Amino acid sequence: MNGIHDMGGMHNFGPVEPEENGPVFHEDWERQTFGLWILCYGAMGFSEDESRNAIEHTPPAEYLWTSYYEHVLSGLERLGVEKGVFTEDELLAVQRGGKGAPGGGPKAGRRVIGPEEIEPMMREGGTKHRPEADVAPRFKVGQEVLTRNDNPETHTRLPRYARGKRGVIESDHGPYVFPDSNAMLQGENPQRLYGVRFSAVELWGPDASKADGVYLDLFEPYLEPA
Amino acid sequence: MATHRSPRQLTEPEIRIKALEELLVGKGLIDSKAVDAMIDLYENKVGPRNGAKVVARAWSDPDYKAWLLKDGSAAIAEFGFGGAEGENMIVLENTEKVHNMVVCTLCSCYPWPVLGLPPVWYKDAPYRSRAVIDPRGVLKDFGLELDDDVEVRVWDSSAEVRYLVLPRRPEGTGGMSEEELAELVTRDGMIGVVAV
């Protein structure tokens, strides 16, 4: 989706404001949003790709005037309704001090994750690498490639600034879950993932620094031979 | 939920997150104590001190450094660090001639097991928009000016590989222990926006 989240190369957002020793959370509600968010992966039953996709569907103007954890909050509200965990009316009722409907949606009755399980669960993580997937590489390290100039309306991880550009394969990371499929509930569909180098001049024109480059991890379907 | 609220009116996000948690707890899908444990883990236990230990070891032990640069995930796991948002790690070495910095232009992908959760600026529009088109300008915002002949490599973590920058070891630290070196290592140095 050509969304507002795809910010690479945009101008006029002002300088970066470094915060050397700032706290991880600046407000209590940010804390709660983070903690609840990570647990909702299991409780509502969505993947990281679906979570990113939901956040990207925050309306563009709202995305710009709200902060990161508000984007997460919007994403969670959207996913809860989409997954049938609750209705929008139910959520509004609780926001106004009422009660939610009884019954827990599709995930009800499943074992609920307890506090003692959090640390082992997060230390375990869940890699998206699928080394066992039988997908032979189409490209090899050192090869020149051209990124496709696609504009899917759905989730993708090829940023706009790197579409239709010439780069060089720097590494082959092997097969990984393909976010473009997984976010749309069309299966993991593992695809080869490559580290690709683009010169700054290729991306930004002749005034860019000749020495510099941008590295992106790109899935094979994003690439064509140059 | 936090209990130390003042009697002021709740803000919109406060109302929304409170309602969402109440709703999910009421449906028996979430244990509030698990929410607290999740917050505690990433607020108090997992953070950039982890990455600093990795960097200090690499500065002190050439064999470890070689392993770290070859197989980041395995060498980092030596310390017991790994898991969510750091399953597949690559470590990038800054040298006299190459400066690496990491961004996620599409969201805010970040190596949690070694750096914890990202700072606000990492998630906000100015950094995400400019890091790829004007990396040297961004570095100046952080007070770092690089010579023209230094190659700046910007790593836009667009997939599930996560990146940690191995900063250059500062001059005059020859006699320092690994613990002392770890004290010098900063979060921003491991994102690659400052020198250490």
Kindly describe this structure.
The complex is a heterodimer of chains A (226) and B (196). Chain A is built from eight helices and five strands; from the N terminus they run ααααααββαβαββ. Chain A has 226 residues and is α+β, with helices and mostly antiparallel strands. Chain A is globular, with a radius of gyration of 20 Å. Chain A starts with 27 loop residues before the first helix and ends with a strand. The longest helix of chain A is centred in the first third of the chain and has 18 residues, at 28-45. The longest helix of chain B is centred in the first third of the chain and has 15 residues, at 12-26. In chain B, strands 1-4 form a two-stranded parallel sheet. Chain B has a two-stranded parallel sheet with strand order 2-3. With 196 residues, chain B is mainly α. Chain B has two domains: 12-44, no CATH class; 47-191, Nitrile Hydratase, Chain A (Alpha-Beta Complex), CATH 3.90.330. In chain B, 53% of the residues are buried. At the A-B interface, helix 1, helix 4, helix 5, helix 6 and strand 4 of A face helix 1, helix 2, helix 7, helix 8 and helix 9 of B.
